[in-house]
Each structure stands twice: as C-alpha cells, then as structure tokens.
Amino acid sequence: MRCRKFGTIAGLLMASVLMGPAQAEDWQHTLIMYGMGATMDGESQIGPLSVPVDISMSQVFDNLNFGAMAAYRADNGIWAFTTDATYMNLGATEHFSDSRKGDVSMKQTTVMMTAGRRLTDTLEANFGIAYFDLSTDLQLKGPLIGTRSASVGANWIDPTIGLAWVQPFGEHWAFSLRGDVGGFGMGSDLLIHALTTLRYQQNEHLSWALGYRVISFDYEENEDRPLEYEKFDITEQGPALGVAYTF
Which domains does the chain have, with CATH numbers? Predict the structure, then answer.
C-alpha cells in the first residue's frame, strides 16, 4: 500500500514535470557551507532499553563533539541536482524523576541527493534519496535497575519526493520554501524534511543565507524480535546560517 501511494504521488509529479520550461541555460555550480543550531526530540530504543531524547539547542552545542555540514547544487534553469551532507557526533544525559539517568551517544550521517525539474520560474519538483547512518549507545542507570546498556548501528535509504519554491524580491534578496516526504516503509516508515531560507546575494558569486530546517524520521527494525528491536523516532530542527559560492 505504501509503495502504491509513493508511485501515485511520484506519477503525478512526473506528469507535472512535462509542463515545465523547455529552454536550458548554462550550468551554474554552487558550493554551500552552513551550520545548524538544532534541537533534538523523540525516542531511541534498542531491544527493551528505551531512552527519550530531548536536547535543546544550547545542549546540542554543549554536547557536540564534532559536526560538519555542506551542500552542492548544479542548475541549468531546467534541471537541478543537489547533494546535502551532514555529520554530527553527539552525547547527552537525561535525568528522570525516579532518580534514573539515561545517557545517549549518537553519531549521525545524513546525505540527501535530489534531482529537480523546474515547473515554473519559481517552482521546482524534486525526486531523490536520503541516506541515514546512525550509531547509538544507550545507558540507563537507577537505584533499582543498576546499570543497563546497549549499542547498535543502523543505516537505511529512503526515497523522497517534494517541491521547492523560490521568490526573488528586491535587487539582492530571495525567499525560498522546500518540503519533502519519504520513507513510505521502504527504509523508514516516514521521513519529513522542510527548509525555509532567506538569501542575500552579495555579488555575482557570493551569497549568504539564514534559514530554518526540520528533519524528522521514524525508523523501526526487527519488530518481531524484541531483543533485537531498534527504533529511532527523532525530530531535529533549528535555525541555520550559511555562505554559498557560485561559479
């Protein structure tokens, strides 16, 4: 059923692609470096061990061991190809009212690759894949349970479809919105990605962007084997600041 829904939505978007502009321009290439002040909220579970994740923006920076974020886009006015990669190495501690304490250590790599087709001067249809690689260590301590710990690594690929809208205004400014959905049970049960950006074009090559990004995924594996069960139901969101160079 989920595959059928994905095929129906993708078919509708592909049909609309045929209505797009037909004149290509010279290829433009853009490199983007950015940082994101993210909050994380959700739940991680390995086997019977479950720890809620609720990390504020300040805690992310306090617990960030290493992070890197970059993107590349090639655009010829009709087709656009984008790769966006992030890596975060995080550690955090949760305290509970019954004197229990949960420690979460997570390494996350996310790569989103999309092919976009211009439908109008301001609207683009996107098709792509999103790759997730998570390495998680959980530890739960308490006066009654002692210390319990578990570790797991999981990776998966989600198909994605979406739309992107860009509206220039003034001489140097542009506002954009992008939304993608994916998963559909092929990798995760559901993936949601949203990005809004305000961009300032300083000159022909250099631009600056301020935005807000949301990535939410619900991934489960080994539901029929309780001791090997894995669940990552996590939402990451927050403001982003970046610089881009176009050539």
Answer: 2-246 (2.40.128)
